Structure formats: C-alpha cells, structure tokens
C-alpha cells in the first residue's frame, strides 16, 4: 500500500474546512435564563461575653532553686487557701497555672541565682467576685485578664437568631 502525499494534504484541507463550517453549529449556547430570582440572607448579633479568665502571678528571686520554689509555693498556697472556699462550679473556678524556675547567669555564664514564676487562674461567670482578686496577696500580681463568650452561650444566641421570625 502506498501513501499519496497529495491525498493526505487534500484530506486534511477538507477536514479543516468541514470543522470550520460545522463549528458554530456544534457550539450551541444555552438560552438566557428568564424569570429567575436569586436571594441570599444573613443575620448577625453581637454575643455578650459571659466568661472571665484572670491570671494572677507570683514571682520569686533567690540564690538557690529550692528557696525560689518555696517562695512560689507559699504564694500559690496562700492564694488557693483564700480563693478555693469561694469557688463554685461555673460561677468561679480556681486552679493553678504555669510554674517555672530558671537559673540566672552572669556575663561569664555562671549561675548567680534563680528566678521563677507561678500562676493561679480564676475563671467563671460571676464578674462581681473578681473586683478584689488581683490584691489577694502582696506577692501576687495581675497578669492576663480576658473576657470571652462560651460556646454554649454562642450556640444559644445562634438558635435564637436562626429561629426568630424576622431573621430571614
């Protein structure tokens, strides 16, 4: 079987012409939509903050690690002894936070003392109880104070928004 270059050139030209003529017929567009309405809605509401977290921190500086640890332990125990009798679940909760002791170095890299910090975390919904807590003991200083909305509270508001008649 022999291959004829003229026929192959002619057939490729015919094929290209057929495609050029039939191209617009094959590419039919969908009709423009008519009588169609697109709607969207959203709602939002500021959710009040219902949970307060307050961290009070004790710091210590001593010549040896044991002394620094004991200073922190005494400060935390005094704060816990004052706060735990007032604790109530979800209203005011008290727990210990971070605790750390680190060496202090001089210019030559030698340990010249020890320093540390310990935290007591107070959390809850009863904001009125928190007014005097940063002054629990002279060795504790206020650290982080943060308000936030709890997930349960946010869900309750979300249900109220989505279930209200005027929401959408």
Q: What does this 3D model show about the protein?
A:
This protein has 168 residues and is of the alpha+beta class. It has a domain at 54-147: Alpha-Beta Plaits (2-Layer Sandwich), CATH 3.30.70. β2 and β3 form a beta hairpin. It is built from three helices and four strands, in the order αβαβββα. The chain is elongated and about 90 Å long. It starts with a helix and ends in a 5-residue tail after the last helix. The chain has helices at residues 5-26, 65-83, 151-163; strands at 51-62, 93-105, 111-124, 140-148. A four-stranded antiparallel beta sheet has the order 2-3-1-4, with helices on one face.
What helical percentage do the residues reach? 25-40%
How far do the termini sit from each other? 76 Å
Topology as a string of helices (H) and strands (E): HEHEEEH
Q: Characterize the largest beta sheet: strand count, sense, and whether it forms a barrel.
A: 4 strands, antiparallel
> Order of strands side by side in the largest beta sheet?
2-3-1-4
**Helix-strand makeup class:** alpha+beta
Strand content of the residues, in percent? 25-35%
- Please tell me how large the radius of gyration is: 37 Å
Shape: elongated
The total count of strands amounts to: 4
CATH topology call of the domain at 54-147: Alpha-Beta Plaits
| CATH class membership of the domain at 54-147 | Alpha Beta
